[in-house]
């Protein structure tokens, strides 16, 4: 049943075999044995694709419910929630992978010695089920009702530039003055769309498209371009940005205007039964980011006041 469900989710026997770490022949045999046992055809196979039959679609819905119940039963009976095991595939933004998850992962693996974590670090959109990914961490508002999203917190967005850039071009005092400035823009890895600068105060709101000589779709590269003095940037105030500001490498501008907040979520497919290892990782990463956000809020020497502006669209 689990093998059939994975084939149906991925639409591929080869993909299911890779995901389950089984030979292709074993996956085909298991599905054939299930079809023989039920006396119905569950999957329609062609040389190019695998799709559900009408009976297969009805069976899959109930199979997923039963697999969820079985997972919960085994977790309660065998203590699997306390000792999850197996491989977990996670995809996170590159900056989070390098600076947050990777340094903390040894503690997680020590707590769960029978688990293996495969950490993908990218800023590109990931289609979880076809790519065999168990969960992702992403920033921005969630618009996909096929995913369960747990909030990890929200970063204040700060407008900043290097001292060298401000020495050459001056410091803007209002959003209206930005037309004389260059930006280090951030663009979507999915659509290529450049994100406008956003400002809000006392009911007044601006969305301003600034010209750029350099732009990036990776958070680390985006910050590096700002540090290099190539323009103004709007960045989530992560620990890295806070440290650059505290050290004077970046200078906040238009601090009396809100630039919004960037919410952060850990997400997993709504229709896939939640395994003990996914549950363990999600609970752990929620606690990890709670500590990170608390450090940001209480960090000494970090300039700028905290506000509660509206959340920003996903990056």
Account of the 3D structure:
The protein is an alpha/beta fold and 315 residues long. The chain folds into two domains: 2-78, Winged helix-like DNA-binding domain superfamily/Winged helix DNA-binding domain (Arc Repressor Mutant, subunit A); 136-315, 3-Layer(aba) Sandwich (D-Maltodextrin-Binding Protein, domain 2). The chain has ten helices and 13 strands. The protein has helices at 2-10, 13-20, 24-38, 54-78, 94-111, 128-131, 163-169, 219-227, 239-246, 276-298, and strands spanning 43-45, 50-52, 86-92, 115-121, 135-139, 147-161, 183-186, 197-201, 204-208, 212-216, 233-236, 251-252, 261-269. The strands form four sheets. Strands 3, 4, 5, 6, 11, 12 and 13 form a seven-stranded mixed sheet that branches. A two-stranded antiparallel ribbon has the order 1-2. Helix 1 (2-10) crosses helix 2 and helix 2 crosses helix 3. The chain is elongated.
Number of strands: 13
Distance between the termini: 37 Å
CATH-scheme architecture of the largest domain: 3-Layer(aba) Sandwich
The succession of helices and strands, N to C, reads HHHEEHEHEHEEHEEEEHEHEEH
Strand content: 15-25%
Give the uncertain stretches in residue-range form.
Answer: 300-308
- CATH class call of the largest domain: Alpha Beta
User: What's the CATH topology name of the largest domain?
Assistant: D-Maltodextrin-Binding Protein, domain 2
Mean pLDDT: 86
Structural class based on helices, strands and sheet pairing: alpha/beta
Main beta-sheet annotation: 7 strands, mixed
Based on CA atoms alone, the radius of gyration comes out at 24 Å
How many structural domains does the protein architecture include?
A: 2
Shape: elongated
Task: Please bin the fraction of helical residues.
Answer: 40-55%
Number of discrete helical segments: 10
